From TrEMBL:
Membrane topology term: Multi-pass membrane protein
Main location: membrane
Keyword Membrane annotated: yes
Localization annotation: Cell inner membrane; Cell membrane
Official protein name in the record: Polar amino acid transport system permease protein
Keywords carried by this UniProt record: Cell inner membrane, Cell membrane, Membrane, Transmembrane, Transmembrane helix, Transport
Ranges where the ABC transmembrane type-1 domain occurs: 17-216
An example molecular function term from Gene Ontology annotations: transmembrane transporter activity
One Pfam family, short name: BPD_transp_1
Cellular component GO terms held in the UniProt record: ATP-binding cassette (ABC) transporter complex
Length: 235
């Protein structure tokens, strides 16, 4: 399908796909880090920390993602430059890649917080109590007990967040970043072959999803090693 398009546009779509994957990986990683910290703060933090985490997750999940992207992309950049100016530093030009990862990472972090919090609550409490009985410090307990034990419960929700991240990169087209959707729009506007290019983009997103499902399946099997298989419900 890409072969019948004018020379060069197929390469543009593939570069756009590469940009989308870069942003999705960065945003998912940032969101995962925020999610771990947020879930820990919600479960074990002080009352002030728990309230702040509750406000963060509620606001981010309540406001449409497109509105958040526009708000954080433009207002966030402006606030950073105002803060730099107040300290006597020159304004900076934040690249689209960094801004896209930061904006989507904040959105992903709110959802990851709830996914990881639920996974931690699903851990058999005997494991946590045993770690506390041995006097294990909170940081070591997080690395040695909590994270490995909650991983099998968290993977399905985190897998969905990854797939959402790959598609949410399309929202960055509204701020002019050249990810896959923006490249597709430019190709279609130039050649007037909208159908061809948007079908090609849909196929690329589908291939990315299928590849992701294969990797996620392997990670899930690795995380559940030594655990009883999940029983399939019968009629």
């Amino acid at each position: 399908m890409l072969a019948i398009s004018p020379p060069g546009w197929g390469g543009n779509l593939l570069r756009g796909l590469a940009n989308s994957v870069q942003i999705a990986l960065g945003a998912f990683g940032l969101g995962l880090a925020i999610g771990v910290a947020g879930a820990w703060g919600k479960l074990y933090g002080s009352p002030i920390v728990r309230d702040l985490m509750e406000i963060y997750t509620t606001v981010v999940r309540a406001v449409p993602e497109l509105v958040l992207i526009l708000l954080l992309y433009y207002a966030g950049t402006d606030l950073i430059n105002r803060a730099l100016d107040s300290f006597g530093y020159a304004p900076i030009d934040i690249s689209g890649l960094v801004a896209g990862i930061g904006v989507l990472g904040i959105v992903q972090g709110a959802y990851a917080t709830e996914v990881i919090r639920g996974a931690i609550l699903a851990i058999p409490q005997g494991q946590i109590e045993a770690a506390r009985a041995y006097g294990m410090p909170p940081g070591k307990m997080l690395r040695r007990i909590t994270l490995p034990a909650m991983l099998p419960f968290a993977i399905p929700g985190l897998a969905n967040l990854w797939l959402i991240a790959t598609k949410d990169t399309a929202l960055l087209a509204v701020v002019g970043f050249n990810e896959l959707t923006q490249e597709t729009r430019q190709a279609g506007a130039t050649t007037k072959a909208y159908f061809t290019f948007f079908v090609a983009a849909g196929v690329l997103y589908l291939l990315l999803t299928l590849f992701s499902n294969v990797i996620i399946g392997r990670i899930e099997r690795w995380a559940r090693r030594g655990m009883p298989p999940i029983a399939e419900s019968g009629r």
